[in-house]
Design a protein that fits this description.
It is a single chain. This protein is 41% helix and 13% strand. The protein is globular and about 65 Å long. The protein has a seven-stranded mixed sheet, with helices on both faces. Strands 1-2-3 form a three-stranded mixed sheet. α5 crosses α8, α10 (211-228) packs across α11 and α16 crosses α18. It has helices spanning 3-13, 37-42, 48-61, 90-99, 114-123, 145-159, 165-168, 174-184, 195-200, 211-228, 255-262, 265-268, 277-280, 286-290, 303-315, 340-348, 360-364, 391-408, and strands spanning 17-25, 28-35, 72-75, 232-234, 245-248, 271-276, 294-297, 319-321, 352-358, 377-380. β1 and β2 (28-35) form a beta hairpin.
């Protein structure tokens, strides 16, 4: 296998990979990448893991045979370790892969002041990792979009410091964040923030309901899907009459349209669909999303506003569709679930309806354009009520319900 060819291909696909080395680990290609932080800052990207995963590694994987696919990766915030001759030190690379951690520079001196300690103490809410002044908030501590919004709110309430995604893309190391807050803070009152306050503060959004257009979509799509995909819809009785969050599995671009066609009219007319602007904001799909009760969000821009928009239907007694995986599967296996839908369920005390959409991977897997006439089955599972559950428990139970149903009753292709 030509590992250099794999490296060159991934480098050509993403402007945000500065260095890469691919080695064979557990009999499969494994990549270690050092990002181009300058390019990421210029593009104002704050979800570095997602960017390199989907638009470097997985974009490469879509175009190659199974045995050439990169099965794992690590992101190093420091340049890759070199030998004295300037070559990448492969023995060091294999050791860090084995230990599942990347090379980091020696720790810098920790500031000895109450501002730094307050920020550090707050960060412990998001991570079990060791926190130091040199920690990268995403790559070392694992913060995600939900954490960013909560962190921004904490900084504003506690120190009267405004931080948004544009500013944050330049200060994603704790040291830089601390220096920024130290320079701009106008008060020192460490304050616990609540999600309900974050979602409601300065929220003034007006949803556009399009019941007749939704009816038209359903009337057109349902018979087409039943004919072409032999669409089977099961267990509609599990849809509650009250407000809920639909949490479907995600195998293909068809999934949102399949669910839209499958919902009863009276439910569909008060249901909004969360979608990523990068996909459904394109010239081809934007007219559909604009008129289809869709809420478009960008994972790197105005996260708080996006989350308030998604929460709005729940405030108005309507439903929302959130794909917990956040992306389409590349190998038919469920991806890890993101906690946003579970947080909404907990905060607004509305049930989650897990939905299995199975067969879409065979009909229109990622990287293909023409749908194949493969059978698709949609199953509404029993609602999960938040009651005494934690956000993590809601997320786990939803994923477990979908995974178990897919194992018990696989679609017959």
């Amino acid at each position: 296998m030509d590992l250099k060819k794999i490296e060159d291909k991934i480098l050509s696909l993403s402007p945000f990979v500065k260095e890469i080395v691919v080695v064979i680990y557990d009999n499969h290609p494994f990549a270690v990448m050092h990002p181009d932080f300058k390019a990421l800052k210029s593009a104002k990207i704050i979800n570095i893991q997602e960017e390199l995963r989907w638009y470097a590694v997985e974009l490469y994987n879509m175009k190659v045979d199974e045995d050439e696919k990169v099965r794992g990766y690590l992101i190093s915030k420091e340049p890759l370790v070199k030998t004295d001759s300037g070559e990448i030190d492969l023995s060091a690379i294999n050791e860090l892969i084995k230990n599942k951690k990347v090379y980091t520079k020696e720790e810098s001196h920790e500031p000895d002041d109450e501002l730094y300690e307050a920020i550090k103490e707050h960060l412990k809410n998001y991570t079990d990792s060791h926190i130091s002044i040199s920690s990268h908030l995403e790559l070392d501590l694992g913060l995600d979009s939900l954490d960013y919004v909560e962190l921004f709110a904490f900084l504003e309430e506690s120190f009267d410091v405004h931080v948004d995604e544009v500013i944050f893309s330049n200060i994603m190391k704790l040291e830089d964040l601390y220096e920024y807050v130290k320079k701009h803070h106008k008060k020192f009152e460490p304050t616990q923030v609540e999600w309900k306050d974050i979602l409601n503060k300065n929220a003034n959004h007006q949803l556009i309901y399009s019941p007749y257009i939704m009816y038209a979509y359903k009337t057109l799509l349902l018979p087409l899907f039943k004919l072409y995909f032999r669409l089977e819809i099961k267990a509609k009785e599990n849809i509650p009459a009250t407000t809920c969050i639909f949490a479907p599995s995600h195998q293909s671009m068809l999934d949102g349209f399949i669910l839209e066609a499958s919902l009863p009219y009276k439910i569909l007319k008060r249901t909004f669909f969360l979608a990523f602007k990068q996909v459904f904001g394109t010239w081809l799909l934007e007219p559909v999303s604009r008129n289809g009760q869709s809420i478009l969000i960008d994972a790197n821009i105005n996260l708080k506003n996006s989350m308030q928009l998604v929460a709005q239907p729940l405030k108005e007694g309507s439903n929302v569709v959130v794909f917990p995986e956040g992306a389409r599967t590349r190998d038919r296996e469920l991806l890890e679930f993101r906690p946003f839908f579970a947080m909404l369920s907990k905060e607004y005390n509305v049930p989650v309806v897990p939905v299995v959409i199975d067969g879409g991977f065979e009909a229109l897997r990622t990287g293909t354009i023409i749908p194949k006439p493969k059978k698709i089955k949609l199953t509404f599972l029993e609602p999960i009520y938040p009651d005494d559950l934690s956000i993590d428990e809601i997320m786990h139970l939803t994923r477990e319900a979908i995974a178990n149903e897919m194992k018990r009753n696989p679609v017959l292709i």
